[in-house]
Amino acid sequence: MKYKKLISFLAFFLAVLSVYGQNPFVLKSGEPVTVACGNSEEEVVHTALNLLNRDVESVFSTRIIVTPESKKGMIIVGTIGQSNLIDKAGVDLSPIKNKKEAFLLTVSSNGKLVIAGSDKRGTAYGVMELSRLIGVSPWEWWADATPAKKEIFQLPASYRNVQSPSVEYRGIFINDEDWGLTPWSWQTYEPSDVKGQIGPKTHERIFELLLRLRANTFWPAMHGCSVPFYFTPGNKEVADKFGIFIGTSHCEPMMRNTNGEWKRDGVGEYDYVHNSAHVLSFWEQRVKEVAELDNLYTLGMRGVHDGAMNGAKTIEEQKAVLTKVLKDQRDLLTKYVNKDVTQVPQVFIPYKEVLDVYHAGLQVPDEVTLMWCDDNYGYIRHFPTAEERARKGGNGVYYHVSYWGRPHDYLWLGTAHPSLVYQQMSLAYERGIQKMWILNVGDIKPAEYQVELFLDMAWNLEAVKQQGEREFGKNRADRLQPVMQEAYRLAYIRKPEFMGNTRTEEKDPKFKVISDLPWSEQEINERLAAYRQLSDKVEQEWHALPAQKKETYFQLVKYPVQAAAQMNNKLLTAQLARHGKADWADSDRAYDSIVSLTKTYNTTKWNRMMDFQPRRLPVFNRVERKALSSGLPEKRQAVYTWNGADCAEGVSAICEGLGYEGKAVAVSKNKELTFEFTAWETDSVEVEVRLLPNHPVEGERLRFTISLDGSATEAVSYETKGRSE
């Protein structure tokens, strides 16, 4: 009742406004839309207007007409300091002045929509905000999310929308692209005689997605299977068209894809101890080439590809080399980019062995951003100290929702738990990581949800929205939300790629053989039943969907959920079959289902984008039929079990969605949790504590104490080491 009364009140309020002569902003189907925008606006603003034109045509079956005259414009677009149209619009611009990439949308008294930006990107984001408001998804192209037609769209005369980013540099890293983006680009979307070429047509689509998601930074693909970004004509120009800062990863200093470019442009060994002149010249060539563009320069040096630097063995030797490298690189930036090097965006990434050198006292210039990394599985390894938070250059984070490496890859399905992304990135922001956020997205697909969540948080940490409601409507989204939550929960316990109990890049051949997981028959059957229920619900929704939503649903829901279900079915049924408790044919049918689902995915414009066997690892094959004489383990039955949030006293913060049952709790320093139970006729109690595999926020180890009935506390101190069991 209250909700209905509120709607009635709003309707009355709007009616009163119209009586007093204030007009709403209105778009109607079939009626042209005039946009006043000055010719002096930067290219990215006109790029955004071109996208808006496409969106208006999709929604209203009409087009926009751009004019430099404000009197003719239903929409007035401009950038502060760049456009006299905005200055004459008569709106208060103070909320966005002196901010980076901020925008304002407001309806003037005569019913015109004013879109103002604090700079070129802010204006472009403001234009794309109108696309969002009329119902166009950022995934309009990347997930075939065709917008619904509308007869009319209105914004009230009181409408005002002011936004600015939480994080200055926000973007993605295309990585491990061997089985998705690269073959799809050069063989399907942008056919080329050059094997592995990801050209400007593909990058235009990537940058369009970034613009729609209000991101501004891109690290290009850098594996040996791909032609380096700057080797393909047109790539750097299209980045500028979309207002994108180009950066590079931890092993690609000075805008150079060392892995792909040194073999063509380098001379001798990539070694700054014995071949510094040629290495410096290699960097200098690129800096001269891109000096006028929007770039984020990665400083430092590692090996040619994700390995330790050559020529320096000890940490002290590496520190001496890196000290000289930093000076020489900044001299290049001073010479070619800006005489005041402090004004050039720069980042230093203390990753892997470079972190040890940093901890040994390497001095990084104060205005250089320090970029920290997660452990490849979504848990951030280091949060800035008070001293690091005080640096002018600020702090950044490089985060994974796709990963190639030990102990096991997850390159196939986008199963990174959104709750973990949210918890870790919220903590990162609170701990001062606010300058730069980069997400390793693999091939973009099928990590659409994680990409949007990450970039939405980077844009506005307080306003993260649900993707499902926008794409499928509120009622269907309400039904799908528990389905997706359960899918992420099951994958959080064990990812589909990890179901074979194998390891990657291990010398011991036993790690290449599919083997039993340490689960009882009861636990296996419970997990199979959970996935079967999920798959059935997804299928029911599929049949109820209108035809125009099926392609989007298949990509965002049906394929990832049902492929994960069949992967579990294949491997867990095989485990039961090894012990004579299931039919091997059921495992093979699950494999066939994965093949069929993937074939369906690749019959659309996405042919070659989806590969269910990245790196051709044993876990993706049919399971070899063999019998085992040993029995399955018995499930231990606890007398009492609790999740963190079930405590009787002392909850610090519930980590919604995390843990085996989605009820993990964070215990702050000097806080405690109390659990109550009764034990009769026993002289001992065994307590098992289960913890998320996170890392210390302060100090070098995680520490807690435990006590029973007020007895003396027992201290537990540990750390989660990478690549350990």
Structure characterization notes:
The chain has 725 residues and is of the alpha/beta class. Helix content is 36%, strand content 12%. The radius of gyration is 28 Å and the shape is globular. The chain has helices spanning 2-19, 43-60, 84-87, 120-133, 181-189, 200-212, 235-241, 258-265, 276-290, 315-336, 353-359, 386-389, 418-430, 448-459, 467-472, 474-493, 521-544, 547-578, 584-601; strands at residues 25-28, 33-37, 64-67, 75-79, 103-107, 113-117, 152-155, 160-163, 169-174, 217-219, 245-246, 297-299, 346-348, 369-373, 395-400, 436-442, 653-656, 663-666, 702-706, 714-718. α2 (43-60) runs parallel beside α4 (120-133). It contains 19 helices and 20 strands.
Number of separate helices: 19
Q: pLDDT below 50 for ≥5 consecutive residues: which ranges?
A: 1-20
Question: Level of helix content?
Answer: 25-40%
Strand order of the largest sheet: 11-10-9-16-15-14-13-12
Based on secondary structure, the structural category is: alpha/beta
Mean pLDDT: 93
Percent of sequence in beta strands: 5-15%
